[in-house]
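Co-fold these.
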Amino acid sequence: MSDSIPADLRYTKEHEWARRDGDLIVVGITAHAVEQLGDITMVTISDPGTAITQGQSFGDIDSVKAVSELYAPVDGELVEVNAALEDAPETVNEAPYGDGWLVKLRPRDMAQLDALLDAAAYGKLVAED
Amino acid sequence: MTGALSKTPLHDLHLERGATMVPFAGWHMPLRFGKSIVQEHRAVRTTAGLFDVSHMGEVDLVGPGALAAAQTLVTNDVAALSDGRALYTVTCRPDGGIVDDCIVYRLGPEQIRVVVNAANIAKDLDHFREHAGSRCEIVDRSESLALIAVQGPQATAHLTTLTGDDTLGSVPSFGLHQTSLAGAAITAARTGYTGEDGFELFVAATDAPAVWRALLDAGLTPIGLGARDTLRLEARLSLYGQDIDETTNPYEAGLGWVVKLDRGPDAPRCVGHPALLRIRTDGVTRRLVGFRVEGRGIVRPDAEVLDDDDAVVGRVTSGGPAPTVGGAIGLAYVPRALAGPDRPLRIRQRGKILGARQHKGPFYRRPH
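Predicted complex below.
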């Protein structure tokens, strides 16, 4: 599994990844999460402009079998939702770290990003799962 | 946790193949064999799939009183069956609540097989012994028998090739046929839980791995419980424990067609007869209806059905995506006054209100 955990991202215990993109943070779910969920059939996310709180839900993701919450990795504001997922939610299955990204956030404090799990720590978490 | 779960005779083969396993009804079962439940679903609709359903229970009623015992236990009319034929039915409590749904096979005049849900085997055995134990021998064959389903438009062709038995194709729906496959004796029943043509094969547990391997080698796709659920929901087949249980009666569940209360003066009455007669006379207060979600949204079990004033008046029992017919579908109990084909439903899930439209009959029917 280690090859599917990119070294340049940060991670949450709830299997979201986060990547700095200028002033923003791009968020998605990990390959491990995708593997657990199976076919993703729908992604439902709060509207841009919504204030979000670290550890709180900002949307949910439906797979064939179940619905799972999405948790914000940092505090801030939702600025963009990946519109392509509306018609092609399976993109999350196909490219969880690429075209299957979920949202862009404007963090209140970029330092929260660095405090998330690094690839090694997340890899350990997944190994124990 | 998995140490406490039961395993089918094919369990090790599923692990070997890398199936994603989950606990289900006390068993350790494959949820999916590959990455995609949707692909498994489509394989069954377009080619043929292979299911391990050995967790299901087989209870044989044996002896001269077998028929009378069956008539006592189930609501459908088993006397109407000839040897080698089967029917779908329910068993009820004295108050009319559904104990289980099952398929009853008449193997012979003194041997009737009841195939029951995995989660209910112990409960059913108690119920059968309490209400029919004096009429015949009740033999639990669940441990010694495996059950393998082969379902899909190419199922019969595959099985004809593998058995070398040209008569399989002429076995009627709900008919039984004895044949052999991979050197093992099998009883092939033209039944299933997918809405497709196909067979369910009773095999001795010891022979099951060889039969399963032969079917895999023939190119059949193994299918997990995930697709089994989406397939049965599209075909609008009830799932015990979700759509029906002891708090629901067959009339409100849309299963009135398996209740035969007027079997003639000499036939034994089924358990629950007076209660069922009363429900039939008085009418039901709610109905299990099918619905299609309008717009975006997937409704899950336990979502609430609301009336126009936002009062909770019903509950969703099954729901999910419908890979073949498209969109999302489900089943819900709604008050009789709100039930009707094409009528709208308001459903609240996770604080959000979704629109749905009621749908009469199966969501999916196989092309002929």
